[in-house]
Amino acid sequence: MDPVQLDAATKHEQILKYIEGLKIGSKISVRKIAEKLGVSEGTAYRAIKEADNLGLVSTKERVGTVRVEKKLRDNIDKLTFAEVVNMVDGEVLGGREGLQKTLHKFVIGAMQQDAMLRYIDPGSLLIVGNRNKAHTYALEQGAGVLITGGFGTSEEVKKLADKLELPIISSSYDTFTVASMINRAIYDRLIKKKILLIRDIVPDDMQVVTLKIHDKLKDWQQLHERTGHSRFPVVDEWNRIVGMITAKDMIGAEPEQSIDRRMTRNPLTASPNTSVASAAHMMVWEGIDLLPIIDGNRKLLAVISRKDVLKAMQQIQRQPQHGETFEDLIWSGFEVQRGKDGQPVFRGVITPQMTNQLGTVSEGVLTILMTQAAYHVVQDVKKGDLVMDNMSSYFVKPVQIDSRIEIRPAIIEISRKFGKIDVGIYHANVLVAKAMLTAQFIDQA
């Protein structure tokens, strides 16, 4: 790294530390950062984008970029009032200082005020029409207010909202629509929360054993003897990843030969926000056993092995699942039975959600069904995790809505690392779609 690059990297980190030290709710702009810290606007812009990725700032419509409280992953299913404003195209009538507060539930105020007593508590959001008394009561109970139908509220209520720092929001949408929007957002976040990321399986205080770029073969041998490992990341003097070195790379090397002459340069890497499933696919597809985890400046944060990934994916299967993906919804309507040969057969009905504008099942849905069937038939004979890496599909005949179909998967070939599966979809015993899939199994290194 030349001095100019080093200076830029240092300034980047200084800007991030400066942003992290700002008060929650502080407005941030490229120009202000550049002037305050004496950096170029380009450097300031890149640092603000990185801060956004880290969850330190958020850009709000009609507000700009502001410092926000970094949301813990455990609280990903909780919305802030500011997010609700953007979601419902709302107007903030009062209590703007409380926009970054989170809400844990919403209450629809389609009841008498006395009946609301049992449901409104601090941290909730009351969805209601133009009922000023209800607005006041909700604020006094520590709840935010979302007024539907485009209505406003009194000046007294606005002043109370400002005093309590609790948002009161107006939206032109009706009650049912805004409730559906918020419910969908929370549901989507539950799905995201279910997705395991690399940062969820890597401890914050992980100590990574590395070699420097100018270390010798003897240094690798010492590390190998001390740790029992044979694969190590290679970093430069600024702890940036520059290569990987393994026992295979060291075959035939002289004791005083430099590591950088033997290492594999520009290794595959991942960020902490990469999903474990994506990391698993990368490691299987590329045939690597150790994956470096880096930040935005390519500084090494951690490493994960195939064993780490396999263990994490096994834990996912044992945990209760919340929220359903599109694939879950499609597959949930199919039940497994056994054919005469003992092989699993999946039967279900084509629902309206599976069809295209012509009323026939879409090719995308058929692809999902065949992939799911292949996955389940393999799981029936070989426990463990796998990734599909190739699929050739043929769509023979259209299948209309309400048709009952049968999916017949068959394992053509299976080994310790690979599998080949043939899947056919039938309607009234007539073939309508067919696929040949290959998969790789995720084994411990």
Automatic annotation (TrEMBL):
PROSITE patterns: CBS. The keyword Oxidoreductase does not apply. Coiled coil: none annotated. CDD domains: CBS_pair_DRTGG_assoc, hot_dog. InterPro entries: CBS_dom, CBS_dom_sf, Diverse_CBS-Domain, DRTGG, HotDog_dom_sf, Ser_kin/Pase_Hpr-like_N_sf, Thioestr_dom, WH-like_DNA-bd_sf. Pfam families: 4HBT, CBS, DRTGG. SUPFAM superfamilies: CBS-domain pair, HprK N-terminal domain-like, Thioesterase/thiol ester dehydrase-isomerase, Winged helix' DNA-binding domain. Keywords: CBS domain. It comes from the Bacteria. Residues 201-261, 263-325 form the CBS domain. This is CBS domain-containing protein. It comes from Paenibacillus xerothermodurans. The lineage of its organism: Bacteria, Bacillati, Bacillota, Bacilli, Bacillales.
